Amino acid sequence: MGLTVEQEVVEQTPEMGKTLTKRDINRSFYRWYLDAEVPNCYERQQGVSFCYSMIPCLKKLYPEKEDLSRALTRHLNFFNSQGTWSTPIHGITLSMEEEMANEGAISDAAVTGIKTGLMGPLAGIGDTIDWGTLKTIIYGIAVTFGAAGNVLGAIIPFAFMLITFFIGKNLWGLGYKIGKESVKSILEAGWIKELISATSILGLFMMGALSASYVTLSTALQFQVAGTEIVLQDILNSIAPGLLPLAAVFGIYYILKNKTQKYGRISLGIVIVCILGALIGIF
Amino acid sequence: MVFGLALLAGLWWWIGQSKMGYTFHAVICQPIVMALPFGIVAGDIGTAMQIGASVEMVYLGMVAAGANIPADECLAGCISIPIALTTGMDPATAVTLAVPFGLLGVFQDQIRRTLQAAFAHKADQYAAEGNTKGIDRCATVYPLALGFVLRFPIVFAAIYLGSDVVQKILDVIPEWLTHGLAVTGATLPALGFAITIFIIGKNIYLPFFILGFFAVQYLGISTMAAAIFGTCMALLITFLRRENASA
């Protein structure tokens, strides 16, 4: 670490007066990781925390109060993405700010454009990989330990924290290093497409496995046909086990895709259907 | 013990949903994680872990896409685990207690994110003055202070005063309703998994969902086994595709 700082100092040329060190870059990431969702509000989402993460670097780059004030205002704008996979954006922003502070060739609009242009696609990647797949698998394994009363259930989820922290920190540095071309190159690189398709496969397979383990729905309906008792659930089981849970998952998926994505309304609907169903004896 | 649990629950919800540490908060907000400290205070770690695991199942597949949380699993856990521990409730009933609070937590988050616009406006003002210390406060201290006021008292009171009330309610609710709530608790995880399928959004891969589902239904494999087989399958498909592309 000390060596890198020295190297950076040596590399400084007289006209490149203001250079960010590795320490500045890391510090900026730690501030982001700590604060990303803390001051979240509807109006700006992660805007305030984005600005908060930039502060140590901006202070160094813009010793003049007027420039600093402009830079701070620029980064208080609306920003919203997934916290660990969006970090190349922050890295790029830092490299652009550095260029702007030294040469002034980059405009406010260019920085804002990069931020708003990339936050959507990267959020999509992050939601699929981190929240959709990684989180669910790790917590799913933790639940099997917890259900047996095992303390490991409370420890295992921290693996998710460590992995995502590592990803975020490295992508942040990567973004800074290769500058504003980086995310374009990341998005176009073959490996990211492979990663998304592989995690989608794994994710969907795991959603299926977890649905089978944790969604338990069965019907209590019985009929009298010509004197013999017919239990509906037995008939369903003889076709294939778990048809009702499967129907529940796909039914809700259909609603999400075609009707509404208002989670609160959907969960209330589930509560009402289940309780009414229990009352009239379907479940 | 009730006092200790109430105190811990109030602080936990405050710290957890203040969202310090992007994925750190996501982890400590999980019912299965908070079950350990609750279990330590209540002196029954095993039971606490089982309750935590049951509540966790409901929220396993939930994805907060675009920061819109479908349910607040942190509040659900902070209410249901301590109350279940003090009243000796079984895990299945604890789940049904958790669900309504999980939904209430969403409203609380909406209030928080509406009010916090004030801090953003304050930050604008500090930015105009070039006052970085002021922005620091808008990003950290103010949201944390607001969060304490919004979160700690409600949960503290709910656990401290609520255990008796919950016990009384549990004694009088009819059998069909407890059954209905149990059915609800067992069906709600479906919402989480459906959300995840929706987020992943690759319809051509849906057969993998069916494969995973019936691997468990017919073969009864564990979650760990599913993760191992699933990873191998995903890697194989990726590598074979790469081989085909280069051939």
Structure in a nutshell:
The complex is a heterodimer of chains A (283) and B (247). With 283 residues, chain A is mainly alpha-helical. Chain A contains 13 helices and two strands, in the order ααααααααααββααα.
Textual characterization of the structure:
The complex is a heterodimer of chains A (283) and B (247). Chain A has 283 residues and is an all-alpha fold. Chain A has two domains: 207 residues, no CATH class; 61 residues, no CATH class. Helices cover 72% and strands 3% of the residues of chain A. In chain A, strands 1-2 form a two-stranded antiparallel ribbon. In chain A, strand 1 and strand 2 form a beta hairpin. In chain A, helix 5 packs parallel to helix 8. The longest helix of chain A is centred in the middle third of the chain and has 40 residues. The N terminus of chain A is likely disordered. Chain B is mainly alpha-helical and 247 residues long. Chain B folds into two domains: 199 residues, no CATH class; 46 residues. Chain B is built from 13 helices and no strands. The N and C termini of chain B lie far apart (67 Å). The chains are: A mainly alpha (283), B mainly alpha (247). The interface between A and B is large, with 115 and 114 residues.
Topology record:
The complex is a heterodimer of chains A (283) and B (247).
Chain A: H1 2-11, H2 22-35, H3 47-61, H4 65-75, H5 87-103, H6 108-147, H7 152-155, H8 158-178, H9 182-188, H10 190-214, E1 222-225, E2 228-231, H11 232-239, H12 243-258, H13 263-279
Helix pairs in contact in A: 2-3, 2-8, 3-4, 3-5, 5-6, 5-8, 6-10
Chain B: H1 2-17, H2 22-28, H3 31-42, H4 45-59, H5 73-87, H6 91-115, H7 117-129, H8 132-139, H9 141-172, H10 175-187, H11 189-200, H12 206-219, H13 223-246
Helix pairs in contact in B: 1-3, 1-5, 1-9, 3-4, 3-5, 4-5, 4-6, 5-6, 5-9, 6-10, 7-8
